[in-house]
Hints:
- By secondary structure, the chain is of the alpha+beta class.
- Helix content is 13%, strand content 27%.
- A hairpin with a 5-residue loop joins β15 (251-255) and β16.
Amino acid sequence: MRRLGSVQQKIPCVFLTEVKEEQSRKRESQQFQVVATVNVNPIALEANIDSALATEKLDGTCSYVSIYKEQPYLWARLDRKPTKQACKRFKKHLCSQKSGNDFTWNVVEDFKRVPETWVPAHGVQHHDRQPVPDEHGHIPGWVPVEKDDKQYCWHSSVVDYDAKLGLVLRPSAQDEDVLEISMVPLADLLEQTLELIGTNVNGNPYGMGSKKRPVHVLVAHGSVHIRNPPPVDYGQLTTWFRDSQEGRVEGIVWHCNDGTLVKLHRHHLGLKWPDCDTFLNTRPVVIHTDGVLQKYDNTSNDLFTSFAQIHGHHFSRLRDIQFDH
C-alpha cells in the first residue's frame, strides 16, 4: 500500500468555506464558525479528488515520529502562537482586510516562546531564516516527548523508548473490519504523523478506558479507510454524515494521488460531533502483542504491561476494553 500523506500543515476543506458570525459548534470560546459552501475547493479539483482515497478523520491530537537523540521519538504538536498584543493587531487586520496573508509579523517579538527542542513542521515557509506564520497566524511545529514529561504524559504512555515500541491501533491485516492494538517498532513509523486518541484527549469521544485506568493509542493518519464513501457533493455528504452508520465519524480526509490532502469536518456542515456512538466503536478489537510478553511482567502498571497481559483477547468494541487487574 502506498505511504499516505503526512499531516504537517492545516488541511484545507474540500469545499470553499465562509465565516458566519455565530457561536462555534466546535470551540466554546469562538464567536464565529467556518462553514462549507456547496462549491468544491479548486485545490481538490486540481488534485483529482474523485480518485482520492477517503479515510476517517479521527478526533485526537496530532503526533509525529521522527529522529531525536539518534533514535525514533514521538513528537507532540505545538504551534507557535502570537502574544496577546500581536493577536489583537492580527484580528484587527483580519476584520479590515478579510485575510491574514498580507499581515506583517515580527516573528522574534510577536510570538510566544517555545522550548529549545521545538522545530517547525515540514512545509513552513522561512524568511531571513525565521519561520513565516500561516494565514491563521500560527507556526505549526513539533516538540519531542520525553519519558517523564508531565505536560505530555498521555503521549509518553503510548511509547516505550527502551524497547523502541509504540502502541498502535490499526485495521487487522487479516480482516479490515477488525481493529487491532499492537506494539509496533517506532522505526516502522518514522516520518509518519499519527493521531493520539483515548481517555484524556478531546473529551474521549470513543469512550476508551476510564479515569482509574486510562487507555490511549496512536492511529496512523490514513490507516482507517472509508469504504464506499459518497461522492464529493455537499448534499450527498451531508446525508451520509447525518443518516448512515458509517457517517458517524468526525470527518473525512481525502488523500489525493499527488499527495494533496483535503478534509471535511461535520462542523463544516453544521452537524453535531460526537453524535450517538461512533462508527469506530462498531468494530471488534483484538489485542496482538505476541513476542513482547516476556518483557512486561506484573511489577509494572503501565499500558504496555496491561496490554501484554491480555494478548489474544477479543473485545466487541473499543469502549469494552478491560484489563484483568
